Amino acid sequence: MSRPASGAPGEAGAQIRFDDNTLLPLLFGDHDRHLVRIEHALGVVLRSRGNEVAISGPPSAVAATEEVLRTLYDKLKRGLPMGGGEVEGAIRMAMGPGGGGTAGTANLRAEPEPALTLRTRKRPVSPRSPRQADYVRAMQSNDLVFGLGPAGTGKTYLAVAMAVSLYLAGRVERVVLSRPAVEAGERLGFLPGDLKDKVDPYLRPLYDALYDMLPADLVARRIDSAEIEIAPLAFMRGRTLSQAFIILDEAQNTTPLQMKMFLTRLGEGSRMVVTGDLTQVDLPAGAQSGLRHAVVTLEGLNEVAFVRFGTGDVMRHTLVTRVLEAYDAATPGDDRDRDRDQPPRFGVVDRSS
Fold first, then answer.
1. 20 to 30 A Cα–Cα from 58, which one of 37, 49, 239, 240?
2. Residues 149, 310: contact at Cβ < 8 Å?
3. What predicted TM-score, i.e. pTM, was given to this entire model?
4. Contact at 8 Å (CB) between 95 and 131?
5. Are 233 and 202 in contact, with CB atoms under 8 Å apart?
6. Which neighbouring-strand residues pair with 125?
7. E strands within 235-297?
8. Chain centroid to CA 302: how far?
9. Of the candidates 220, 264, 258, 219, which has an alpha carbon nearest to the alpha carbon of residue 246?
10. Which pLDDT tens digit goes with each residue over 229-266?
């Protein structure tokens, strides 16, 4: 599929030939925008002619670019969707943990194995960074997983995708999604409507993720039948949740007692994922975050997995990553999640070595 190509002194070159011309418009993007993005991200020069793409640049960058193009082309051959998100994900996977660094230090990583692709009714969902791949593996192999890190890293989205995938496969009987109803530094005052109308605004991100993976009418029917439940954390007290996939989102806004209450809802045949960002605590001043307390308390348990995302895993606009880095630089270390950029810990498997 590829062969070496000559380049300038200190540079390498390669040429890739694709065997299906009909896929190239999708691979290259409108006006070659996908190729342009790869050039900018990896510091290479790409030239397309017919069914061939010539790559020139630093040796490691050329190797990473070959990996990206092969990954994207293989996705298209398998009938998977192709867009800017898939391109960004392939770049991050090729560049190694966190998707950061420069092309000159690219750490080649293979495309996520098919077992990491989560099947939903609307679209398959695959990890777009090495840390996201670690997160999916953790959810597949552990009954209790903590996903920690900044917004936009896919913590909640991938957890919902895993829940939907297992539900559709019949491996769990219901999906339970919960959030603490804590205002983000605002006082909204009286909200009109019944109880559902009052709490739904706090749970809207969970609805959005579900609607991205299941048809709206199916979500409505499953909510009516209680096979999908979206509820504030306060509604979890006194329950035992069996044969369910349970997600607690925005867990940094729980108290230690609330967190203990939630974790002890885990019933037979259930799995639980807890997500949160310890830099975004909206509790009253002086109140201890239940998420921080749980991390300290449960860190030594072999049956619990912790996956920590960093700013390099942010999947939103590239400016978001720079904004988070700027805030981190301006914030005292004691107020940040000191463990954020440590490798994930997976129960009895030590992945940091």
1. 49
2. yes
3. 0.71
4. no
5. no
6. 118
7. 244-248, 271-276
8. 23
9. 264
10. 988 888 888 888 999 999 999 999 999 999 999 999 99
- CB 183, CB 243: distance < 8 Å: no
Q: How far apart are CA 151 and CA 154, in angstroms?
A: 8
C-alpha–C-alpha distance, residues 153 and 149, integer Å: 7
Structure tokens at 44: 């290479």
Spatial distance between the Cα atoms of 88 and 193, rounded to a whole number of angstroms? 42
Instruction: Give residue 196's pLDDT band: very low, low, confident or very high (50, 70, 90).
Output: low
- Whether the Cβ atoms of residue 96 and residue 50 lie closer than 8 Å to each other: no
Q: For residue 9, what pLDDT is reported?
A: 54
Residues 119 and 162: beta-carbon distance below 8 Å: no
Residue owning tokens 């019949």 = 170
What percent of the chain lies above the pLDDT cut of 70?
Answer: 76
Q: Which of 182, 104, 129, 147 is nearest to 314 (CA)?
A: 129
Contact in structure between 112 and 127 (CB atoms under 8 Å): yes
Those residues with Cβ within 8 angstroms of residue 293's Cβ, 6 or more apart along the chain or in another chain: 256, 259
Decide: 279 and 150 in contact? Cβ < 8 Å. Answer: yes
User: Is 63's pLDDT higher than 50?
Assistant: yes
Tokens of 304: 């619990």
Report residue 297 as tokens: 């308390």
Q: CB burial class (10 A; 0-12, 13-18, 19+) of residue 114?
A: exposed
| Bridge partners, residue 236, by sequence | none
Whether the CB-CB separation of 279 and 331 falls below 8 Å is answered with: yes
